[in-house]
Design goal:
Helix content of chain B: 25-40%
Oligomer: heterotrimer
Shape of chain B: elongated
Strand order of the largest sheet of chain A: 5-2-1-9-19
Distance between the termini of chain B: 63 Å
CATH superfamily of the domain at 266-407 in chain A: Succinate dehydrogenase/fumarate reductase flavoprotein, catalytic domain
Helix content of chain A: 25-40%
Number of strands of chain A: 25
Radius of gyration of chain B: 21 Å
Number of helices of chain B: 8
Low-confidence stretches of chain A: none
Strand order of the largest sheet of chain B: 2-1-5-3-4
CATH architecture of the domain at 266-407 in chain A: Alpha-Beta Complex
Number of strands of chain B: 7
Structural class of chain A: alpha+beta
Largest sheet of chain A: 5 strands, parallel
Number of helices of chain A: 17
Number of domains of chain B: 2
Chain lengths: 642, 256, 226
């Protein structure tokens, strides 16, 4: 099947969304309750969509694997949310936010999508404030803003370092209100394990109740996935332990194309791995680089020494050396790769894990000398405390140690301008889709996109879809549902009956390490090819030798993990394939072969497209479909930070 | 480090539970508490036994999934720290630790250290929101909000819903949780129209769920990973009195 | 009147009732102690005061208020203690106090001790005044149905066993009053940091005054200083 039309609007981009909203069909308020909509995931995108659809009067079922919708991983976002309010009178506008986002995405996103995102960003702030989100305020009582991620305007709204938490609690409270009103039925501790497609349309999902183990199906007129990203394919990431690719991957296997899976974002300042038992990585705010200086020893022999014993002249402040104009504030991808190079060079610091020290110093000694300890503590005190809690080291005494970590995934299920996937009736929102960030996401834009999709885009586009069809007419006794349930149950049984020798985590760790080494910060044809060869072997071993205790009829956390790792083991292949096929460097995708003295070399002539992969059955190579990208308003330029 | 663990094992809601002893000989002081359990679970599982079930997700102290009692303290000995952020350097070599699930009638044990906290969601459903449909919001800066109100509201809104307050309270009271939710919304101008009905309904729901009452012990505040203040409970009490005794009946209130 | 019933049935409502009645009982205890300080000014003052209190309208008004407060205070507390036990059917193998204090956790024990103290105190010095009732007292004196308050008090407390009982009972009362007084401020909605600091100071001063005053009276009688 070729790629369906992307339904992008024509005409001036400033009017495009307004005109589209007018031209879309509506569902009569009296008829809305006859339509059942399934929303999978309860993060910013899922919760805001479920709540809004409930308010409109649809019959909504919302699913999450956590014990309550409020725990979705959006809650962990720290920094802030962008909106083109121009409250600071510093020259911001919808157009500027649009421009910055397209450029930040390294010209691999759709202009019309990004413009719409910038346009509705202002409504998100209004909505959040009305819900009681306690954003930071000035003494005059008006909203405060800060500049974030190197933006030249202050357009980021924030709630201390817990913006994601507060926005999610806002969406969650709206969701709970609808649950109380009976428009939304919540299904916590319930994991989507398959998408059910009937007559070419998404008509429901098959789920497993994580407490009782019961497999059942829910029928709907449309399904929306807001199931987040896949950074846990690397095993170690800043994502929550439960984040997984399962919902989107199973939808992919039912016909939804997966777009740009190789576009992943690595965050440069995370606390390094402390040992082989490490279970996840913790992000430290990027703001630390405003005053901290990054260095490693010049001589690998010095790496084991206490930092205070390394003389000033023996230190390599490599970011300041390589990028004199941006120095320690070089963009995320550049700072990340430089750290990796230093450690690959044998000059990393901190504990040696599996024979390599992976860490660089982020030193505040100069800042303390220049500003005084109280000023440094005022700015970074809470971050220092958090660092000390985890590492046991005092950043005033010993320089902090940092290392990059996977953080966000720009790739996701392919959707058209209406947020509909290649399966009619399957909509994808938030991080789970690929639509707005191109090859690199700007700071404080993830929260914006999740809420834009859920509050202000999906409710319109979904109505347009539903208005064209009759509600209902199907129940879960239909063969497609029974087949899906049987397949899910069978898969569970197969997993439980392998009774091998290796734990699920050991497979996940091996996959993660391999992906991190070859499909992480820097990628080569050679490394990717080797991994592409190794993944099927590992997958085969998994299905022969994994061990899972307990049964399928109870709360069984190993079984849950096993299902997710099994999907990562399939997904990883298309991710590597995408990375190998995209023979250029752009945004978060850095191919070592395509660089100009360390700078990413984009190849606009051949790769100004989104890559959408079609599943063609187990063991078959997926088909690649290319959606060409056109840039009418923002002309592609090369990024340079020298 | 070597740790001796006594872990509460319970197969399901209705099963009888008991403590089981585990010896953890190779604990690194840099491990988080949950990583120590991960390592133990890998061992248990490779021996063909059922691993210890415990709830966790973000492992950075914000999602509120994790939490159990360690030697009689919710989230363990370090103040303002969830169990996922607690590191083994807080313990001594050879320590014997007792791991128990949160215990409260309203938090039934699901398995081992996992409990059912959906009662919290139902308290929020009773009124923990501002009724504003998407799209109906006025311009965000139309109404200034005093910075100290916004800050105080934030302090209460920082609640992660982990349930440590209930677990630690000698009366298994959910007052700190409910009061934090109420304070978050009631301290803001946007929250005023529904302040009274919200104060009444959330308190009533807290009782319906079977939580105990507050006798001002402040154990909850001491173990709260976000340091939420018990003064919110006093505000809740006042709000409830205003809502039930000192105002006219409202639609949907428990009044006749 | 359903709203009063719903209020009483809610945990916060019950707590508020316990707090308000606690406040009234605290007031009663304070004034009772201040009245008794007249033991230091001599038999005449104290007996006149006793006679005033025995005017039927004063006596019965006082008794009604105190009895109602006590009944509500005790029923409310029993409800709450039972609710607390219901809220945690299975206790912890280990539980370690984090901020709660000895006196906050022993309210449900210090309360009954105070009740026993109250009953015994009635038997000591009040019931003897009614015809046909026996006083728990070495030598109960009264004229025309009005007890001789000064003599009865000093005689009673001059016996070492009774003095000891009163001192111990007052210490229990102190435990109860301190947490009670501070706690009721919070239950009644006091939430400002400054006000709470003030409430704590006030609770300490009140407790010290009441317990100190009562013990001073006891010791004075025991050592025959009055």
């Amino acid at each position: 099947m070729s790629l369906p039309p992307n339904k992008l609007p024509t005409g001036p981009i400033q009017q495009a969304w307004t005109e589209r909203k007018f031209s879309m069909k509506l569902v009569n308020p009296a008829n809305r309750r006859k339509y059942t909509v399934i929303v999978v995931g309860s993060g910013l995108a899922g919760a805001s969509a479920a709540a809004t659809l409930g308010e409109l009067g649809y019959n909504v079922h919302c699913f999450c694997f956590q014990d309550t919708p409020r725990r979705a991983h959006s809650i962990a976002a720290q920094g802030g949310i962008n909106a083109a309010k121009n409250y600071q009178n510093d020259g911001d506008s919808v157009y500027r936010l649009f421009y910055d986002t397209v450029k930040g995405g390294d010209f691999r996103s759709r202009e019309a999508n990004v413009y719409r995102l910038s346009e509705v960003s202002v409504n998100i702030i209004d909505q959040a404030v009305a819900q009681g989100v306690p954003f930071a305020r000035e003494y005059g009582g008006l909203l405060a803003n800060r500049s974030f991620g190197g933006a030249q305007v202050s357009r980021t709204f924030y709630a201390r370092g817990q913006t994601g938490q507060q926005l999610l609690l806002g969406a969650y409270s709206a969701l709970e209100r609808q649950i109380a009103r009976g428009t939304v039925t919540m299904h916590p501790r319930t994991e989507m394990l398959d998408l059910v497609v009937v007559d070419g349309r998404a008509r429901g999902i098959t789920v497993r109740d994580l407490e009782s183990g019961k497999v059942s199906s829910y029928v709907a007129d449309a399904v929306a996935l807001g199931t987040g990203g896949y950074a846990n394919v690397f095993y170690l990431s800043t994502n929550a332990k439960g984040c997984n690719v399962t919902a989107t991957w199973r939808a992919h296997k039912r016909g939804a194309y997966f777009a740009n899976p190789c576009f992943t974002q690595i965050h440069p300042t995370c606390i390094p791995v402390a040992g082989s038992y490490q279970s996840k990585l913790t992000l430290m705010s990027e703001s630390l680089r405003n005053d901290g200086r990054v260095w490693v020893p010049k001589d690998p022999e010095d790496c084991g020494k206490h930092p205070s014993e390394i003389a000033e002249g023996d230190r390599d402040y490599y970011l300041e050396r390589k990028y004199p104009s941006f120095g320690n504030l070089s963009p995320r991808d550049i700072a990340s790769r430089a750290a990796k190079e230093a450690c690959d060079d044998g000059r990393g610091v901190g504990p040696s894990v599996e024979g390599v020290r992976r860490g660089v110093y982020l030193d505040f000694a100069d800042a303390v000398k220049r500003l005084g300890k109280p000023a440094v503590s005022e700015k970074y005190g809470n971050l220092f405390e958090m660092y000390q809690r985890i590492t046991g080291e005092d950043p005033y005494e010993v320089p902090m140690r940092m290392y990059p970590a996977p953080h966000y995934t720009m790739g996701g299920l392919w959707v058209d301008y209406q947020l509909q996937s290649t399966i009619p009736g399957l909509f994808v929102i938030g991080e789970a889709n690929f639509s707005d960030h191109g090859a690199n996401r700007l700071g404080a834009s993830a929260l914006m996109q999740g809420l834009a999709d859920g509050y202000f885009v999906l409710p319109f586009t979904l109505a347009d879809y539903l208005a064209g069809m009759k509600p209902g007419g199907l129940d879960s006794t239909h063969a497609a549902f029974k087949d899906a349930e049987r397949e899910v149950a069978q898969r569970t049984n197969t997993l439980l009956n392998i009774k091998g020798k290796r734990t699920v985590d050991s497979f996940h760790r091996e996959l993660g390490l391999m992906m991190w080494d070859t499909c992480g910060m820097a990628r080569t044809d050679e490394g990717l090819s080797a991994t592409l060869k190794r993944i099927p072997e590992l997958r085969e071993e998994f299905w022969k030798n994994v061990t899972i205790s307990g049964s399928g009829a109870e709360l069984n956390q190993s079984l849950e993990k096993a299902g997710r790792v099994a999907d990562f083991l399939e997904f990883a292949e298309v991710m590597c394939l995408d990375a190998r096929t995209r023979a250029e460097s752009c945004g978060g995708h850095f191919r070592t072969e395509f660089q100009d003295q360390g700078e990413a070399q984009r190849n606009d002539a051949e790769y100004t497209h989104a890559s959408a992969w079609e599943y063609t059955g187990a063991g078959n190579a997926p088909n690649l479909h290319k959606e060409p990208l056109t840039f009418t308003y923002v002309k592609p330029v090369t990024r340079s930070y020298k | 480090m070597r740790m001796k663990l006594n872990v509460w094992r319970q197969n399901g809601r209705d099963a009888k539970g008991a403590f089981q002893k585990y010896d953890c000989p190779d604990v690194s002081e840099h491990m988080s508490f949950l990583e120590m359990l991960d390592v133990l679970n890998e061992r248990i599982e490779s021996e063909g036994q059922d691993p210890i079930a415990f709830e966790h997700d973000c492992r950075e102290g914000i999602c509120g999934s994790c939490g159990f009692m360690i030697n009689g303290a919710a989230h363990g000995p370090q103040p303002r720290t969830t169990v996922c952020q607690l590191h083994m350097r807080s313990f001594k070599d050879g320590d014997e630790l007792w791991l128990e699930p949160w215990r409260a009638k309203a938090f039934p044990v699901v398995r081992d250290l996992v409990v059912d906290r959906t009662a919290f969601d139902r308290i929020v459903q009773a009124g923990g929101y501002i009724s504003t449909n998407t799209g109906s919001a006025p311009e965000a800066n139309a109404a200034p909000i005093r910075k100290d109100s916004a800050d105080k509201s934030f302090d209460a809104a920082a609640c992660i819903g982990c349930g440590a307050c209930v677990a630690m309270c000698p009366n298994a009271s959910a007052s700190l949780f409910t009061a934090a939710k109420l304070a978050h919304l009631n301290l803001l101008p946007q929250g005023q129209p529904e302040r009274l009905i919200r104060s009444e309904k959330m308190v009533v729901q807290m009782d319906v769920e079977g939580f105990g009452h507050c006798t001002n012990h402040s154990d909850c505040e001491a173990v709260c990973p976000k340091g939420i203040s018990v003064t919110n409970i006093a505000m809740m009490n006042l709000g409830y009195v205003q809502a039930t005794l000192l105002s006219s009946p409202r639609e949907g209130s428990t009044d006749d | 009147m359903n709203f009063l019933l719903s209020f009483w049935r809610s945990t916060v409502g019950t707590k508020v009732v316990v707090a308000v009645t606690g406040l009234m009982l605290l007031g009663f205890t304070l004034f009772h102690m201040i009245g008794n300080l007249q033991v230091f000014t001599g038999a005449e003052d104290m007996n006149a005061y006793g006679a005033f209190l025995h005017k039927p309208e004063v006596l019965w008004a006082g008794r009604c208020v105190v009895a109602t407060s006590m009944i509500l205070h005790i029923t409310g507390t029993v409800r709450l203690v039972r609710a607390s036990a219901d809220a945690r059917p299975q206790g912890y193998a280990k539980w370690k106090a984090q901020a709660s204090t000895f006196y906050s956790r022993t309210m449900k024990f210090s309360g009954p001790i105070v009740l026993i103290y109250f009953v015994v105190h009635l038997l000591n010095l009040t019931t003897g005044a009614e015809p046909g009732h026996i006083a728990l007292h070495p030598n109960y004196l009264q004229t025309d149905g009005v007890p001789k308050a000064f003599e009865n008090l000093t005689l009673l407390l001059a016996t070492p066993p009774w003095a000891t009982f009163y001192i111990v009972a007052n210490l229990a009362l102190g435990l109860h009053l301190f947490h009670g007084a501070y706690s009721l401020a919070k239950t009644l909605g006091l939430s400002g940091a400054r006000q709470l600091r003030l409430a704590r100071v006030l609770a300490s001063v009140l407790t010290a005054t009441i317990v100190g005053g009562n013990i001073a009276i006891t010791l004075a009688c025991l050592l025959r200083l009055v």
